[in-house]
Amino acid sequence: MADYKQALPTGYELDKYRLLSVLGFGGFGITYLAENLTLGHRVAIKEYLPNEFAMREARTIHPKSPEEAENFAWGLEKFKEEARTLTRFRHPNLVRVSDYFEANNTAYIVMDYEDGESLNEILRRKSTLTEDQLKRVVLPIADGLRQVHAAGYLHRDIKPGNIYVRLEDETPVLLDFGAARRDIGNRTRSMLSVASAGYSPMEQYESDGNQGPWTDIYSLSAVCYKAITGDDPPEATRRESQLLRDMPDPLPSLLEMDLPGYSRNFLQAVEAGLEVIEKRRPQSVEEWLELMPGERVEPPTDEPAPALDARAVKQDAGTERRSPAVSPAAPSSPFPQWLWLPGLAVLTSIAGIAYFWPTTSTPRDDELGLRPPQAIAGAGNAARAGDAPESRSSPRIAGLGDAILVVETTPPGVEVLLDGETIGSTPLRRADLLAGFYDLSLRHPAYETAVLPGQDLVDNRVLRISRTLQRGVGALTLLVDPLNAWVELDGVRMVDRTPVTLEDLPAGELMLTLGAEEHRTEVVTVTVPKDGIGVFEHELEPVAYGTLALDLEPPDANVEFPALALDYSPDMRLQEGVYQLVVSREGFVASSLTVAVAGDTRRQVALVRQAEAFTVAVTPPGAEVDFVGRADEYREGMLLPPGEYRLRIASAGYQPLEVTVPHGAEPTIAEFTLERELLAFGVTVSPANADVEFLDIDETYRPGMELPPGEYRLRFAAEGYAAREVTLIHESGSPQASVELARELPAPGARFRDCPECPELVALDAGEFRMGCMNPECSEDELPVRTVTVAERFALGRHEVTIAEFRRFADAMGYQTAAERLSQRGCRTLELLERQQWEFTPGRNWRDLEYPVEDAQPVVCVNWFDVQAYLEWLSASTGEAYRLPSEAEWEFAARAGAPTPYFFGSDEELLCDYANVADQTELPEGFAWGSPADCDDGHIFPAPAASFLPNAFGLHDMHGNVWEWVQDCWNGNYLQAPQDAGARLDGDCDQRAIRGGSWATSAALNRTANRGSNPSLEGGAFLGFRVARSLVP
After folding, report:
1. Is residue 382 predicted with pLDDT exceeding 60?
2. Hey, which of 90, 143, 169, 641 would disulfide with 376, CB 3.0 to 4.6 Å?
3. Element (H, E) at 864
4. In order of start, what are the domains of the chain with their CATH numbers?
């Protein structure tokens, strides 16, 4: 059917339908083109198959695992609920769902299959629309939304690709109700997978977003913006991020653009619908349309008004039978022609998948007509003006237009007749026929004529006919010279001698293969008359023969015909012609040659001996190898003929070597080891009495000692000075190194403050450690494990910054955090007594939380920019450069030299001695942690800072209590991460890394290597920070 491996096969019968092809597939299902076995018309069928947690085995859909069974069943109910919802709507501008049923352990939705083109394709072709053109599309869609909203439902995925314009009556239709897809997305994945960038408002990116009619109004206004400007609107998340930073809205104002032909009221209505904050948008379709004078929507009724039945009108009017002749003066279409590429067919389906079949018609610029605007109410059924021009000679029904006939056949090129009059050949589309009842015939010289009596052509309606004709049969007499010719059809031998008469052949043109001994085989085209006997005469061309003899060197070389099933032998007989030969033998280079055989043909073929591989292996690796006395450039494994080769081998820091290497008839691998070069080594040290010690070799340092070139790690120490470890590069011509020691700083492990009320710091030494997850099970973002050098000493807060310490800053500066400034949004809290997930809670901030606030607790509900403001104040107050630690500094400090999952080892049962985590502490009734630690730390919420045992560096709460902001931008792994301990400032800087876990996280999330991320603009009751500063003399 399609190359999508999960699809059901072509011809599969599903309920009362037969599947014809796959129209499209996505993450939530497959859409098929099908035929109704009872009525014969085509429909589109959507199958529920969420590939994230289900798969097809044989014909039946199964969850991928027992764990996914609940998600699959839940999503299936949502899918069926959406089908039941859509069957309620009967509006000309909403996709019509005619049926739904269950089979194969899943569910199916049946929808209309219609002709049309998406607004997305129209805008791709035209770029922008005028106001009148845009209202032709938007106002009927708004009327459909009125009915959807009145029933208590939302669309949730309005965009140009989900708005189509029908070919039949040139009215728009809205597709793809995203309710079930959104519900599944809420349950299984990020909301980004069910939001359309640029067309979804901010509330659709949030799992608890306040959605309503204003949500669809935003999307419909975004469609207007695209049609007016030709550009997609910027994503809502980007707009909100800019506005929260007091930066200009990235959406340009329509009122400030030069848009001739657009009314100010219409542009104001579009801008009102695009407000970021949902409460500022019109709250209903009616409110939105009130901003556009002259456009309104009547109050919704329980059921949509029934559409006028065109067939009933014809019968009442007593329509006469008409000739299929072209109307002499057909008026131009009353709907704007810019909406159409003639002859394009499109599926209207819940998946919003469009497929097009172009014809030879192409719209011209001078055909782009427009229709005057109509009121929205009843727009989908509005009568068209100018349908009964006086110039028509045939009788017409007042108020109706031309009938449309589309005929497709297999094979194509079939003559189409109405009442015996030819009107064209297939594929055929005629939009200029007069309405009436006709006998339709399909005629082809090689196929049986099909007659379809009583076909009803109706004004402003499409009659689509698709038929496969039955091929006729006939007979053919073959007269071939020579008489002993054989005949094949489609690779099957039919007869071995001619003349012969072949009966029951398919009528029409056939391709036959004729051949005879010592004659050329030919493919000929013959014509078999239907229900008759034809005669075909043909003479085959004789073939001349010659002989082939090869003089081979070596004589036992092998000869092959690669394109023919022939075995070579001397003086063999062959048809005269050109032959491709391959001559080969082990130890020689194979030769391909072309030989023209004519008469007695003889050729000499001498093979060249094969050169052997030549390789030089040198220690150290990477040494340069050059030929002496040859222009060749040495390459490992190069092919050389036998002989002796003089080589020069050299490498920096080693003594060069010249050597002669013999090379015979076998591959050569010559191995050499170069001797190291010794150079005088010395270091100038300040103070001069400092001790110098090698760290990586077993040698005692002496000024002027001789050492091979390379890198050496040394330690310099003197009383009253801070010891230093330095790596020196020792090579020829390099100047003597100088090392200056700094005066002593606070000893590693020393605790100190820069002011009486400043956060208490712990001095940490420089060093080197392995960063990342070193356990059997690791997250991708914790890899790869790498060695990081902390080159400079630094100090880190003994514990997280407390509420009391942060209050001194807030009171001194009159500072309000983002959660306080945006109180209607507040801070993300867990609210244990109300829910079991993190959500923004209005009014919550660091001063007012869901638990009793104590000065000794760590401050939370501060975003990354709030923290930067605190650090700037603290730096200005002390004269020291305070900052956040980098991720590398944080993990170095947290590990305190331990390579285990926790700084105290690997035993999770000890976790409650060192950390406040999600544990066995008694919780409010009805609430439970997802994966609690198997211990009791005595705290549900954040504990006072330093309540638990410290690590080996004297640092408290490096596991649990609250997550801690660090300086780094978020990156999903350590690839391309720096080897030093500096913060990584590339990647996604709208997200910042956080470390350490919290009171609400499992044991696994409190591992030293565990990483997290959080939007820079958002804080939470789980997230705080601790300060750092460099230690420099």
Report:
1. no
2. 143
3. helix 864-878
4. 13-112 (3.30.200.20), 119-162+178-290 (1.10.510.10), 473-539 (2.60.40.10), 545-609 (2.60.40.1120), 612-673 (2.60.40.1120), 679-743 (2.60.40), 751-1030 (3.90.1580.10)
